[in-house]
Specification:
14 helices; MetI-like fold
């Protein structure tokens, strides 16, 4: 029997949603508002809600602190590390899934579960010895150590649920293993690929730890660049907030664009049978 929901039912249903939305959106809104405030307005107590917006913080970030160069560095490292993770991770995931290479899969999963900071000291010692600190190659390789296992881990579960009959039909039609992978698996695995791309890019874009140890002035990334606004005398909160908005904005935009693919990719990879 279908029963109509009462208005109180809808209210009780949406109250938790609204509370969660406020909890997660308030810090973002606070950062956005503060990026348009002057330093006295930001540190004022009680907080100043009515203020005259200013773009001085954003202008200062790009004109006085070379933020354009940091933006370029982060973009290059995140894009290249994501592409390399996909190029190497997708065939590896297909091989592990279809040829039941469980031991290899467990080894890669272990690499995914080990905290990234565990790699930091060996990476630093290695690249210091071969004089490769503060290079794009070093940072991309360090991000690849985390991004590649993530791609393999997600895609193995995703490929497991794809019907193998389609591949067998392609083989009957004369396709090689490589052609089957490119023509059959990759189009069907689009949601999973989008999921991996988004998560890997977000990790690389927001990474602070590896950049702190392995980069310097030439390859400094956005998260590390925020340190420029912190001094012994004071913290330039307006520029910190403006820089934070610049860092957060691409992550939010990419997540919103690929949201449906991420949700579909994660749920499909979790359901078998």
């Amino acid at each position: 029997m279908n029963m109509k929901k009462k208005p109180i039912d809808y209210i009780l249903l949406y109250i938790p949603v609204v509370l969660v939305a406020i909890l997660f959106s308030f810090p973002l809104l606070w950062i956005l508002m503060s990026s348009f405030k002057t330093q006295p307005d930001i540190i004022a107590s009680p907080p100043v809600w009515a203020f005259k917006p200013t773009l001085d913080n954003y202008i200062s970030v790009f004109t006085e602190n070379e933020f354009g160069r940091f933006l370029f560095n982060s973009s290059v490292i995140a894009i290249v590390s994501t592409l390399l993770s996909l190029i190497m991770g997708l065939p590896a995931a297909y091989s592990i899934s279809r040829y039941k290479q469980k031991r290899v899969g467990v080894f890669i999963l272990m690499a995914r579960l080990i905290p990234g900071i565990s790699f930091l000291i060996p990476w630093y010692i290695l690249f210091s010895k071969i004089k490769m600190t503060d290079t794009f190659t070093t940072l991309i390789a360090s991000h690849l150590m985390i991004g590649l296992p993530l791609v393999v881990w997600i895609m193995v579960s995703f490929i497991d649920v794809l019907p193998i009959e389609l591949e067998e039909a392609a083989r009957v039609d004369g396709c090689t293993v490589q052609e089957t992978f490119v023509r059959i698996i990759l189009p069907l695995a689009k949601p999973g690929i989008m999921t991996c791309s988004t998560l890997t890019f977000m990790y690389s874009w927001n990474n602070f730890m590896f950049s702190l140890a392995l980069s310097a002035d030439r390859t400094k990334t956005l998260p590390l660049a925020i340190y420029n606004f912190v001094s012994y005398a004071e913290i330039s909160w307006g520029r910190v907030m403006a820089a934070s908005v610049i860092i957060i904005a691409p992550a939010i935009i990419i997540t919103m664009i690929f949201q449906k693919y991420v949700v579909k990719g994660l749920t499909m990879g979790a359901v078998k049978g």
